[in-house]
Design a protein that fits this description.
It is a single chain. The chain has 157 residues and is mainly α. Helix content is 75%, strand content 0%. Helix 3 runs antiparallel to helix 6. The radius of gyration is 18 Å and the shape is elongated. The N and C termini lie far apart (44 Å). 27% of the residues are buried. Mean pLDDT is 89; it is low at 144-157.
Length: 157
């Protein structure tokens, strides 16, 4: 498998997970899928394959004592860039999953944070942290409600 094929496959692989979290958050299948670690295992296997393919003695030395110029040179190689991208995909999806599950647990609105996380992971994380804080600070009783109109409902036990 070529780095470009893995890069493209990784991009396509994550889209359905983001779509169901954002568009169908209360669907039973969304809850079941997002409680699974299988998507992360698949992406981790791709990452390990690419990481192993991109590792040379020079790259290992650069990664063991990282300097920006060395990392930039490393990521300038196609296989290393694809490795980094898969890293972003798996970590952003993992953070998105956490945001989704927290929204389901607490009833805090998550659609905007998930959309941001899909495009720029750390901004989505910060958005959720701020949204959860605002909800707890100014609407403390809303967490005990069903989350009507929020796109997220606490899971029933």
């Amino acid at each position: 498998m070529t780095p470009e094929l893995i890069f493209n496959a990784g991009n396509l692989f994550v889209v359905p997970f983001w779509a169901i979290m954002i568009l169908l958050p209360n669907w039973g299948i969304t809850r079941k899928v997002m409680n699974s670690f299988i998507p992360f295992a698949v992406l981790a296997v791709l990452y390990i394959y690419l990481f192993g393919s991109s590792l040379t003695a020079e790259n290992a030395a650069a990664l063991s004592n990282p300097k920006l110029a060395d990392i930039a040179k490393f990521l300038g190689e196609e296989t290393a860039a694809a490795t980094g991208w898969i890293h972003f995909l798996v970590m952003d999806l993992f953070v998105g999953r956490w945001i989704y599950l927290e929204g389901q647990r607490t009833g805090v609105w998550t659609v905007h944070s998930l959309a941001l996380c899909f495009f720029a992971g750390p901004m989505g994380l910060l958005s959720h942290i701020v949204t959860a804080w605002i909800t707890q600070r100014f609407f403390p009783s809303s967490e005990s409600l069903s989350g009507a109109g929020s796109g997220a409902h606490p899971q029933e036990n």
